[in-house]
Design goal:
Elements lengths: L1 E8 L11 E8 L2 H14 L3 E3 L6 E3 L3 E8 L13 E7 L4 H10 L24 E2 L2 E2 L4 E8 L7 E6 L20 E11 L9 H16 L7 H16 L8 E4 L5 E2 L1 H10 L5 E4 L2 E4 L1 H7 L6 E2 L2 E3 L6 E4 L5 H19 L8 E3 L1
Parallel strand pairs: 2-5, 3-5, 4-19
Antiparallel strand pairs: 1-2, 6-11, 7-8, 9-10, 9-11, 12-18, 13-15, 14-15, 16-17, 17-18
Helix pairs in contact: 2-4, 3-4
The chain binds uridine-diphosphate-2(N-acetylglucosaminyl) butyric acid (EPU).
The site of uridine-diphosphate-2(N-acetylglucosaminyl) butyric acid has 18 residues, from strand 12 and helix 6.
Length: 350
């Protein structure tokens, strides 16, 4: 199935609801339609812009090329009875739906990544992560097509280890940007895995849910699903629902600094939350923005979320310039106070 729309409105297709249009919006289902769409772009000489759930985008202009959206296709559960399941997930599959389906079958791997908006195909691009887990923990391969001007698209399957997945980063955002279109992922999921409950709040809530269930002798819900439901509850408490209050999740990355810099900051601000990682120390950007007094701060029709200062929300009818001005003001303030540079997380299309 393929559908084509000229000068399509992208406002409802980006979770910040920024007004923008696409020269062509093409939606496909299945490999044949996907290749037909690429052929259309090549003959019309249009750059291809793959769009997932639009939840990590700041659209500051119209897109002159072909915006390509892959529609969800069913999963193949034929290997699901095994202890270790290699699941192929088409790029258009909704991420949270995938988390619910895998965890309901008792499979561990995606449970900490519940309620992340967007489609599966976008997950490796920024290596989505939350509550001590990242998609790189269970990603095996990424399928897709290389695009080169004047050449036929070339199918390829990339090993996850070659994609350089790191904190909110990968080669898809770097040297492969605009060159590779993801069509499916292969994930390795396990029936018998150690739950990742390193976040104290998550561990406590999961334990009390399990206790309650045992006490009430309720039917057995797989532990992976209990964790996914608990992560969902926590996210709903902290983060605004993009369907009600448009946003793109964390607007900034948590900055990575050297151990020495983190120690200096800790001496001055003992309450600053820090997390040791293999690449350095991660600082809680939300805490720093909060300390600068930005929670609830408004610029035009955009504001810093009341419950999580890392999230910028759009109250409707705003201009992208207001959003970018708000982001700059926050960056300048954090830099001045803490000497730390914040990096924007969602991709800016300017
Ligand atoms: N904090 C504040 N004030 C705030 C926000 C946070 O004091 O306004 C403090 C919190 O109390 C906590 C610390 O900062 O001590 C960290 O906050 P939180 O646990 O909410 O997580 P985060 O570091 O702000 C990251 C991810 C989130 C992910 C959570 C949970 C990034 C950029 N963000 O946020 O991911 O859900 O951890 O693991 O790494 C996203 O990427 O869109 C996203 C929501």
């Amino acid at each position: 199935m393929i559908s084509k729309q000229e000068w399509a409105d992208l406002t409802p297709l980006n979770s910040l609801n920024l007004p923008a249009r696409a020269r062509w919006l093409v939606k496909t289902s299945g490999r044949k339609a996907f290749l037909e769409a690429l052929d259309f772009a090549a003959t019309q000489n249009l750059p291809v812009f793959p769009l997932g759930g639009g939840s990590n985008l700041v659209l500051a202009r119209d897109l002159e090329g072909m915006v390509l959206q892959q529609l969800p296709e069913p999963l193949d559960w034929s290997g699901a009875a095994n202890q270790t399941v290699t699941l192929r997930v088409p790029a258009g599959y909704n991420w949270h739906q995938l988390v619910l389906e895998t965890t309901s079958r008792g499979l561990f791997g995606l449970e900490n990544l519940a309620l992340i908006p967007g489609q599966a195909g976008a997950a490796p691009i920024q290596n989505i992560g939350a509550y001590g887990a990242e998609v790189s923990d269970c990603l095996e391969t990424v399928e897709g097509y290389w695009l080169e001007p004047g050449k036929e698209p070339r199918a390829d399957t990339l090993a996850a280890k070659d994609c350089e997945l790191a904190y909110r980063n990968s080669r898809f955002k770097q040297d492969w940007k605009g060159r590779f279109i993801i069509t499916a992922l292969q994930l390795c999921l396990q029936k018998n895995a150690q739950p990742r409950l390193g976040y104290a709040d998550l561990a406590e809530r999961v334990a009390s849910k399990q206790e309650l269930r045992n006490h009430q002798q309720q039917a057995c819900i797989p532990l992976a699903r209990i964790i996914a439901d608990t992560v969902t509850d926590i996210r709903r408490e902290k983060l605004p629902d993009p369907a009600r209050l448009p946003n793109a999740g964390s607007f900034f990355k948590n900055p990575l600094v050297t151990k020495q810099k983190a120690e200096e900051l800790k001496q001055r601000w003992p309450d600053l939350p820090v997390y040791a990682t293999k690449d350095g120390v991660k600082l809680a950007a939300g805490w720093m923005i909060d300390q600068c007094g930005f929670k609830g701060y408004q610029k035009g029709r955009f504001a810093v979320h009341e419950r999580q200062a890392l999230v910028l929300v759009h109250q409707g009818g705003g201009q992208v310039t207001e959003l970018l001005a708000l982001a700059e003001e926050i960056k300048a303030s954090v830099e001045q106070r803490f000497g730390v540079e914040l990096e924007q997380e969602p991709e800016l299309i300017a």
